[in-house]
Amino acid sequence: MSSKYCHESRATLIIRVFPTDLNNHRTLFGGKILADMDMTASITASRHARTKCVTASIDHVDFLHPVTEQDCISYESFIVLTGRSSMVIFVKAIAENLLTGDRRVAATSFLTFVGMKDDKTVPVPSIILETEEERELAEIAKARIENRKNNKLISKNIASIISTKPLKLRQNEE
Ligand SMILES: CC(C)(COP(=O)(O)OP(=O)(O)OC[C@H]1O[C@@H](n2cnc3c(N)ncnc32)[C@H](O)[C@@H]1OP(=O)(O)O)[C@@H](O)C(=O)NCCC(=O)NCCS
């Protein structure tokens, strides 16, 4: 499988914060930020693999600064690591106060996408890192691989012990 440069699959999404996206603290709803991170990263995954791609996991996300109605928020995604079928994609969410021009990192995350065809995982091209930022983030992503595998085992264990019955039925059992 051939290699591709990081810049070939970079993606950006810029959104003006609208009142409908705010929570009851009048800051941007966290779930909207997660959805837009996933959306942007999915474009990077598809551009890189040129096949169907699914989100396998979203790493830990810290919301570092509130985002308000005065802001626009831009999401930028790029691949930092590839495996056989997996792609680790870094996303940064940068908020910009449109009145002052002040810019701050609202959130960051690593998301893993997997290339698929006919319901099977398929190989994806490897990545050629180009910038110092990409190289540094690739090192961080590599260091997190074991952690990610452990998290999946924990999730599978949780799935094996929790009930899938609706709440009402469970209450009747007691
Ligand atoms: C993601 C999915 C395809 C993985 O299937 P699987 O049977 O566990 O596949 P495998 O164990 O063969 O792993 C395939 C690759 O995915 C990686 N992977 C699997 N689960 C992962 C996870 N939770 N986090 C990160 N990487 C993961 C593996 O490391 C492997 O990488 P490699 O090919 O580069 O070595 C499957 O769990 C799935 O379809 N999940 C639902 C996806 C979805 O609906 N997403 C939301 C909407 S897009």
TrEMBL record:
InterPro entries: Cytosol_ACT, HOTDOG_ACOT, HotDog_dom_sf, Thioestr_dom. One of its GO terms (molecular function) is long-chain fatty acyl-CoA hydrolase activity. The keyword Cell cycle does not apply. It comes from the Bacteria. Keywords: Hydrolase. Residues 7-119 form the HotDog ACOT-type domain. PANTHER family: ACYL COENZYME A THIOESTER HYDROLASE, CYTOSOLIC ACYL COENZYME A THIOESTER HYDROLASE. This is Acyl-CoA thioesterase. It comes from Gottfriedia solisilvae.
